[in-house]
Amino acid sequence: MPRRRRLDPAIFHLPVERMREGYYSDKYFNRARETLLKDGHRPRVTMQVFAKTHAFLGGIDEAIAILKLCAERWDELEVAALYDGDEIAPWETVLLIEGPYDAFANLETLYLGVLARRTRVGTNTRRVVEAARPKQVMFFPARHDHWLVQTGDGYAAHIAGAIGVSTDAQASWWGSEGVGTVPHALIAAYGGDTVLASRKFAEHMDPAIRLITLVDFDNDCVGTSLQVARALGERLYGVRLDTSETLVDRSVIPEMGTFKPTGVNPQLVWNVRTALDKEGFQHVRIVVSGGFTVEKIRQFEEQGVPVDMYGVGSSLFQGRFDFTADVVLLEGKPRGKVGRSFRPNPRLERVD
Asked: ∠ CA(130), CA(132), CA(134), 5° rounding?
């Protein structure tokens, strides 16, 4: 079988000099390396990297880039690794690094960190995508974390199956761009008139851009959806329901009593779908967002709620997917700490 492609290390824009000097590394790794260099001791070790939980691997190409660009000499190292997006089992070896320890001792903090971060985002996104299938998932958590993490997080979500990300930075590693909807702020800028804001968006934006409008500004998703659909016709691709978890939409109030009525709930989606279909707007998709998790998506799908797309945000950053690195071989012979032995993995592929 042909080997799978890896991302070019240049795409990560690493601060190579800072990384090499240990600026981002735990201090004890820097001091360990300094000790070896001053002592003239260059033991050849095998470093083994693994996680303790089932996950979908992310950040491996970024970790390899750190080794390639920041190690003292890449040609001194032999590296084997899995690929971004691979499903991994607890304790499965995902990365092996063999070479003089001083050549990469100062990089452990860095490659473990990117593996943990990207695997968390990728695994959470994959679980959401699987729960929503065949519905589509849009990756919307950029506002919930520091802007510097966007590029790698977006790529992890893309590998996991998200159909859209919200910023150009998130889409940059595979040459795409962000997607989005008519936001609440634009509606407010036009005096709270969702129809006017949507008209202006349609007037000034490229017709190729899918026009999806938020319709909860007045807490009347049914009424606003119909108004926008009547005004825009075929130009309207979809409406997005984003009702606050502390509010009950106007259309839901008469039906309260046997379900949780707040936020975006199944009854609200049915109300909007029924109203749109009744007036001939079957082409208008329904996007839902606001507090969606794997569990909530599963509930919607089990009930057959007529959602076309899910927008998911902060829940994609939850959980822990830590990675550990251990020296397990010294000069080719077992020398790991008690409980950490060499675990070869036939799925690993040598990195050129």
From this structure: 90
DSSP string, 147-163: GGGHHHHHHHHHHHT-S
Within 13 Å and on the Cβ side, how many CA atoms surround 319?
Answer: 19
Q: Contact 65/352 with Cβ under 8 angstroms?
A: no
159-202 pLDDT, tens digit each = 999 888 999 999 999 999 998 889 999 999 999 999 999 999 99
Q: Which domains occur in the chain, in start order?
A: 9-119+319-350 (3.20.140.10), 131-317 (3.20.20.70)
Report the candidate in 278, 284, 280, 279 with the shortest Cα–Cα distance to residue 307. Answer: 284
The type of residue at 124 is N
SS3 312: strand
Distance between CA atoms of residues 37 and 42, nearest Å: 8
Comparing CA positions, the residue from 48, 46, 45 lying closest to residue 93 is 48
Give 98-142 as a DSSP string. EEEGGGTGGGHHHHHHHHHHHHHHHHHHHHHHHHHTTSEEEE--G
Mean pLDDT of the chain: 95
One-letter amino acid for residue 135 of the chain: K
pTM for the predicted model, two decimal places: 0.91
Report which residue type is found at 331.
E
Return the ∠ at Cα 275 (arms to 269 and 281), rounded to 5°.
Answer: 105
**Distance between CA atoms of residues 295 and 299, nearest Å:** 6
pLDDT digits (tens, 9 = 90+) for 50-78: 999 999 999 999 999 999 999 999 999 99
Structure tokens at 40: 């003239």
pLDDT on residue 308: 97
